[in-house]
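Project standup — Tuesday

K.O.: blocked on the structure for the chain from last sprint. Re-posting the sequence here as requested.
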Amino acid sequence: MNTKYIDLISQTYDFPQEEFTLNGDQLKFHDIDLMALVEKYGAPLKFTYLPKISENIIRAQKWFQDAIVKHEYNGTYNYCYCTKSSHFKHVLDEALKNDIHIETSSAFDIDIVNRLMEKGKITKDTYVICNGFKRDQYISNISKLINSGHQNCIPVIDNYEEIDLLTRVTDKDFKIGIRIASEEEPKFEFYTSRLGIGYKNIVPFYEDQIKNNDQVELKMLHFFINTGIRDNAYYWNELQKCLRVYTRLKKVCPSVDSLNIGGGFPIKNSLAFEYDYEYMIDEIINQIKLTCEEEDVPVPHIFTEFGSYTVGESGGAIYEVLYQKQQNDREKWNMINSSFITTLPDSWAISKRFIMLAVNRWQDRYERVLLGGLTCDSDDYYNSEQNMNAIYLPKYEKEDPLFIGFFNTGAYQESIGGFGGLQHCLIPSPKHILIQKNEDGSLSTELFSEQQKSEDLLKILGYHGI
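H.V.: unblocked you, prediction finished:
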């Protein structure tokens, strides 16, 4: 009878996989010896494997370039990194090793852009695409960037007042985009996105506020839907509606020459994950070209704003199972030495699932369990793998510690969790490790941040000096 954990994983999934392999009965991720990481730094810990960021950027750029060549598409492709998925300096430094551009969401994003400019990480040729609802400080920061001579700063207009707000404080001529308010899937609680301007209002908005405004040049139409880029009727239908708007706009506004299709590439959330990125990119380029040919307008330059796809698969978290609680005849709770609410907020806030695997003891027998966090909140738990309505792990043994890993957690968790700030029930944020690949192929690690201490939290709460 196959009752070992390795048997379960091998029978359920195609294993090993490109990034997941075994060294004896211990898991390796991108050739990282995870147990060696635990032995050196302890658990809980978070880590970022920086080379994965560049790898994903390069892959997407190649897929788009291949599709452009295949379809003889007379336009360029520009990869933008969506900074809100992770603002950390080490993430931006790695991403900007590649030929990419930046997409911002708020006022303080522009301060990061200015720092990157000062350090020579980006130049005035770098596109800075400014999304989001803009008021006061964001408008001011955008205008300062434009006034400094950054001609490739493109604020994407989200509502009818933003052009007026920008022209009041901007001395130079500047380029803009317009965001389309896409229609949501029928299962949503509302019909149309709160972001952007409705399909039918785009051309009238151009005629009313942009056409005769000598200071403003419309260059970009921005399209994004919450469900992301997926091979279903809803996505292709929304893309076609967007393309019809673009071609109508192009006929009355010759200056518009770029289509921003936003982000939304999914990332691997299960060992059974399947997504044909290359096909999707090829078909998007094909659909854009066909529609433009039908309407007899030049094809647009393509922009994307990939956030989770850029950084998500670089991250991971490792916990130790502290104790097992048998709460009834069927439910066993493995208690981890941290909190899901603190360290993986997406797992409880929006029921997001990550790849979860044992780090050690793969040759041991397995059991069905639930995973509980340390807080006294009933929502601080993790109860199922992406493709199984349960969690199976090597059997708990008090004398033989079990470590578990959550993988592809690199997007949004630190910002949503409030990195460096207060955490639920004052559970401290774990230490964070950066992992880089050396020229000889070996891996090096660096401690980015220590686990939060009591005095860090007490200071925030106002107890400092009492």
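K.O.: great, moving the ticket to review. The first strand starts at residue 20 and ends at 23. The chain has a mean pLDDT of 92.
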